[in-house]
Amino acid sequence: MAYTILRRPWRLRKPYLYLMIPELGLVVALLVLFGLSQPNTYRTTMWEIGFENGFNSNPKMTLYAYANHVPLPHIPFVWSQTITNFNVAISVLSLFILLAKLISLIMHIFFPVFGAIITTSMVALYVTSVYGQAGPDHADARYPSNVAWYIAKSCDYAKARNAVTDCLMAKGCFAVTILMLALYLVQLGIAIFSLMPNKAIDIEDDGSDSDDGFPPPASKQWEMKPRAMLSPRTPNTVMMSSNAYSGGISDSPFTPRTQAFHTLDRKLPLRS
Questions:
Q1: Quick check: 104 and 10 in contact, CB under 8 A?
Q2: Which residues contact 237 (CB under 8 A, 6 or more apart)?
Q3: What stretches pass through the bilayer (predicted)?
């Protein structure tokens, strides 16, 4: 038995393929939602509403720093432009990864080790996105916040600013991101499960030329057998009598090449 980490088959290939259907739907939803949120559709509005209700820091703290000639404060990740650009980038990357996985699976070149590496990277990116969308805000010691208010609280606080739709969009982005992270975790589990040692898969087969790790078909196995192991009555050999001139019986093989030589010598084997 020999364990191979590269050319291993998927142990749950069909479920992995079926998971690409909801993955496509989630990717399209993220592309739309994150695209609408760029560059600053509702981020600053949610920040201002939170400050007005005492939930987080003041979004004008940067202006105060410029006016008072003091060092610029650190803007929380949840309210920064970085998280918005980051979300748009990973949504586009997710679409590219989905198409690449689908094509690679059809061509039988997407092995579990590649799936584990790629999916682990995507899980790390989406964990960062979840943290950024609902991250803490400790820029103002008077109003510390461990979770963004629009995640932990109702959108009723946004009615005074007519921003209920923006609040719901922010909640929707967070919810779809959570679903996408859960789907990638399931795919990562399938990839790790396929990489685990398995006696039925790890049997060493030096004669296997299959790209997806499965044994070759029966026809290919027949072609790979030595000539001595084949039956004497093969399609390329015609058992005929080499003693036909004298009426005797023999089991020596008679090939088309031998017949050609007999024809040249005017010694047809079936002519008495």
A1: no
A2: 253, 254, 255
A3: 16-36, 78-98, 105-127, 174-195
User: Could you tell me which residues are beta bridge partners of residue 239?
Assistant: 253
Residue 206: both structure tokens together: 């030096």
Token pair 């949120």: residue: 37
* Helix ranges, 134-163 (H): 149-152
Residue type, 148: A
Give the Å distances, CA to CA, from 244 to 167, 213, 238, 248, 268. 97, 51, 14, 6, 9
Residues 137 and 59 sit within 8 Å (Cβ to Cβ): no
Q: What pLDDT was estimated at residue 196? A: 86
> Residue 211 is encoded by which pair of tokens?
């790209």
d(CA 114, CA 117): 5
CA–CA gap between residue 131 and residue 85 (Å, rounded): 14
Residue length of the chain: 272
CA angle (97, 98, 101) in 5-degree steps: 85
Give me the residue label for tokens 């090449």.
257
Q: Domain-by-domain residue ranges, the chain? A: 13-195, 218-264
Distance between alpha carbon 19 and the CA centroid of its chain, in Å?
10
pLDDT digits (tens, 9 = 90+) for 34-76: 999 988 889 999 999 999 999 999 998 888 877 887 787 888 9
